[in-house]
Predict the structure of Isopentenyl phosphate kinase.
Amino acid sequence: MTEIKILKIGGSVLTDKTVLESAKMEAIERIAAEIAGHDSGLILVHGAGSFGHIHAKNYSLVERLSREGVLETHRSVVRLNDLVVEALRRAGSSPVPVHPLSCTILRDGRIEAMQTDQFGEMVDWGLVPVLHGDVAVDRSRGAGIVSGDQLVTHLARSLEPEIVALGTAVDGVIFNGKVLAEVKREDLPEIGSELGPSAGVDVTGGMRGKLEELLDLADEGISSLIFNAEKAGMIERVLGGERAGTLVEVKA
Ligand code: IPE
């Protein structure tokens, strides 16, 4: 079986989060080129940025079901997914889009069930699944948002990856102006108040939401990296097994 690597690229890296559906095409092309050389065993997840958050907020999808909002939000993130998939294909990779709306059920905003058997098969056959933050059916409220971060941790729990990494628009977890080399559960009370929301419109919690997801994963014995995917070369290094940014560590 191929060793699995799970990489998420945040929506702030791929889009301008303040302007509706504005993809940063140069960044997408560069990221695709970096990934293409290191895509064995890779499952890629990307955020929504200004392709999903703005629709989700306009339709108040986190608070209540909007049937129109489900369609519009999903279609929007699929448009970004298409751009990422096509860039990967041009770069020489073999991407295949996977839409969480079609294989995931939420309860109270958390994944209750998700079909994941296909991912091991895809990577074994040389395909690179490309998932994205999405809207999904929620048993308790009709529909909800499943963030790319939540998808990453859910996949990591079921697929035992060798690498779990989240590429963001910052160098890692920043406290007192410095990038922390590592963060453990016990550090959260001290650093928590400094963790800001994401720039632009964000319905899934910014850096704090990200860290909470990853600390839950660390509690289960899986460590992960938060690194800067806007810096050229970083994705290649991280996929090559290097440590960069902040390591979210399991308890000693
Ligand atoms: C959000 O996904 C999904 C929607 C709003 C539809 P993410 O939370 O993973 O997106 P980013 O990385 O913050 O943009």
Notes: The chain is about 35% helix and 25% strand. The mean pLDDT is 94. The CA atoms of residues 159 and 173 lie 25 Å apart.
